[in-house]
Specification:
670 residues; seven-stranded parallel β-sheet; six-stranded parallel β-sheet; 23 helices; 21 strands
Length: 670
């Protein structure tokens, strides 16, 4: 007889409500709420060799435990020893531990080892009866971790009924995947590390396969578009009007875009390229082709800075071609917005640049043929679709072009953006100077500022980026933009022209500061990550990033891309203690290499951005490396192309639609 959540011992009305609050509404939901991480309690470390972090040790209690009290707290201290030496133990507010530690008793303990003033101690250790791999689940308010594990053990007795096999037998054999019921059991309470690896591999492979199957079904339902009447020499005519020759990659990608624009199915294409590869020129090429065919275009950017940058570039490049350009952003005055709305609606603006304001209520277009979204990773499918929907002409959808400088290896891009065709711009224009990147510890800060003064004396400019605007009590040892600005302008860099900008700065004030920096009237611009995209100052040759360890690799690479835009040698200084992640940036300027290394270090799960509010962490498991994702991608491709596998394909797609039917449109593609 099948079991319900309420049949599990310990789940009453209160805990049932707590489970539902995190998206666990059935026994199957509970079984698919996989552990957030695991404690490896299988390898005993000699007491004297226990390093900082989690560890399992075994030894004999060497001295009687001592109990001390202070400020209403209790602390029990003891020590254990083995042949290698001793390890100090410490428990807070657990006085009963005293009775569990008689002298001479051999104990196995798991806990966190800390080093303070050169002394190692294990904090709040738990006794381990035998070596095991312990699951650690995301906290559910009102349900202790131990209780949640006990609930899961009970639920696992029903795994065969709740979770029938989803993958065809032959497919599992080809890809050496274990059975689903075995995978779920071992993913929660693994017998050993190899069993855990097999279980997670099976579940990750299946989710990736189902995700691609669902996205593939979406592609088949793409909306009808309208073919643009483009002349054969249209792309070359555009390049001939540009002030620079295109790279081979730019020529190839614009040809792909042109072919899409000529089709009757609405284009849905991602242009993926590293910082400075010339994606904006490709967007302008698509816009010029669209407007030349008698339609309007709109280009949406995530920030007003970037929208203004695109608008200024377009006025210089597109207006001489006879294409009228306009700007629509949220900070405009009401009268300016009304005028912008009127120009977009009557078609007097052939291309409109802007932010989310482009999809706000009341905005209409006369004949929108192309919707361009820049920095795609800042938007979700829904926002992209809203812009597309505003442009429907006689029931036909406009063509859609999305661009992203967030460097993602090609294989992962094809998977993540499964509802889009992908073009990779894998070539930088000539003349781009590689940025020299160094990790700078705090004790070398003074020498770095001396170098910065020399750069300014030589006529160069610099950025100093901080993770916070204001000082925060909640975040210790993190430099804020305001404090850094005050410190630099009055001390280390006094006498130089230092300015400050941040995201929530009044738009007019922000525009004034950025204009002054662009014009060379400011030497040092202190800011938050607001300058990550859209700021183009070729004279800037130094990028300093405070607390670099707090940023992701892709974001650090994006920030680094603000310098090296001119002919002068450029530098990026990462203020942090050196680690493996930061060393990657010092070894390469290639964003795709950075992304690949980042992927290898942390796995692709964080890149998906698919988890919705209220869902458990295990709901979308994507661990493993890029090779597993590629294997799942090739599997789905073979299912689609090999007629002999049509039954397998049908089975996989049926499960995929059952899993993703209600969620696929909500997924915020990275």
């Amino acid at each position: 007889m099948s079991m319900e959540l309420t049949d599990i011992k310990g789940i009453g009305p209160t805990r049932l409500a707590a489970l539902r609050a995190v998206g666990i509404c059935s026994l199957r939901d509970l079984l698919y709420s996989l552990p957030l991480r695991y404690e490896d309690r299988t390898r005993v470390v000699p007491c004297a060799q226990a390093r900082e972090g989690e560890a399992l040790v075994m030894g004999v209690v060497a001295n009687p435990p001592k109990l001390s009290r202070f400020n209403g707290l209790t602390r029990v201290t003891a020590s254990i020893g083995d042949e290698s030496g001793k390890l100090l133990l410490c428990w807070y507010n657990q006085p009963w531990i005293m009775q569990q530690l008689p002298i001479g008793k051999c104990v196995m303990l798991y806990g966190r080892v800390m080093v303070k003033n050169g002394r190692r101690s294990m904090q709040n250790a738990v006794q381990v009866p035998e070596p095991s791999i312990q699951p650690v689940y995301r906290a559910v308010k009102g349900i202790p971790g131990k209780t949640f594990r006990e609930m899961m053990l009970t639920a696992l007795s029903q795994v065969d009924d709740c979770c029938p096999e989803t993958l065809p037998h032959a497919l599992r054999l080809r890809h050496q995947l274990c059975e689903l019921n075995y995978a779920i059991r071992q993913a929660h309470f693994p017998d050993n590390l190899e069993a855990l690896r097999k279980a997670r591999r099976r579940l990750a492979f299946e989710q990736m396969l189902m995700y691609q199957a669902a996205l593939g079904l979406m592609r088949h339902h793409r909306e009808d578009g309208f073919p643009l009447p483009l002349e054969d020499g249209a792309t070359e005519a555009f390049w001939s009007r540009m002030p620079f020759p295109p790279t081979g990659a730019q020529r190839r990608v614009l040809k792909e875009i042109t072919a899409d624009l000529r089709r009757s199915r609405a284009m849905s294409r991602l242009v993926q390229g590293d910082v400075g590869c010339g994606k904006t020129a490709l967007a302008f090429g698509a816009i010029a082709l669209c407007c030349g065919a008698g339609y309007q275009a709109a280009m949406m950017a995530p920030t007003e800075i970037l929208a203004r940058q695109h608008y200024a570039s377009a006025k210089a490049l597109l207006e001489p071609m006879g294409i009228t350009c306009g700007l629509l952003i949220g900070s405009m005055r009401a009268r300016e917005k009304r005028e912008a709305h009127a120009h977009a609606a009557d078609g007097s603006w052939q291309v409109v640049f802007g932010t989310h304001a482009l999809i706000s209520e009341g905005v209409a277009y006369q004949r929108l043929g192309l919707a361009v979204t820049d920095e795609q990773h800042r938007f979700g499918v829904r926002q992209r679709s809203t812009l597309q929907d505003k442009g429907a002409v006689a029931g036909k959808a406009p063509h859609v072009l999305v661009m992203s400088a967030t460097p993602i290896p090609r294989t992962l891009a094809l998977i993540l953006y499964g509802d889009l065709d992908v073009s990779i711009v894998d070539e930088l224009p000539p003349g781009r100077t590689p940025v020299r990147t160094r990790v700078v510890p705090d004790e070398k800060r003074g020498a770095m500022y001396g170098f910065l003064r020399e750069q300014v004396k030589a006529g160069r400019q610099a950025y100093v980026v901080c993770p916070l605007v204001e000082e925060s009590e909640a975040v210790e040892n993190v430099r804020s933009a305001r404090e850094t600005f005050r410190q630099l302008s009055t001390n280390e860099l006094s006498g130089l022209r230092v300015a400050l900008t941040w995201g929530a700065q009044p738009p007019e004030e922000k525009a004034e500061v950025l204009a002054a920096f662009t014009a060379g009237k400011v030497d040092i611009l202190v800011s938050t990550t607001v300058i990550e995209v859209g700021v183009n100052v070729p004279n800037a040759s130094v990028m300093i990033i405070e607390n670099a360890e707090r940023f992701g690799l892709s974001q650090l690479h994006q920030l680094r891309g603000r310098v090296g835009r001119g002919a002068a040698e450029s530098w990026c200084f990462l203020l942090a203690e050196e680690n493996e992640r930061l060393r990657i940036l010092t070894s390469t300027n290639d964003g795709f290499v950075v992304a690949q290394k980042d992927l290898e270090l942390r796995g692709p799960g964080d890149l998906m951005g698919t988890r919705q509010a209220g869902e458990m962490a295990g709901d979308f498991l994507l661990d493993g490396d890029i090779r597993l994702l590629e294997e799942a991608s090739q599997c789905m491709r073979r299912l689609r192309e090999d007629a002999a596998l049509s039954d397998e394909r049908a089975a996989v797609e049926a499960v995929a639609m059952n899993v993703y039917a209600k969620r696929i449109e909500k997924i915020a593609l990275n």
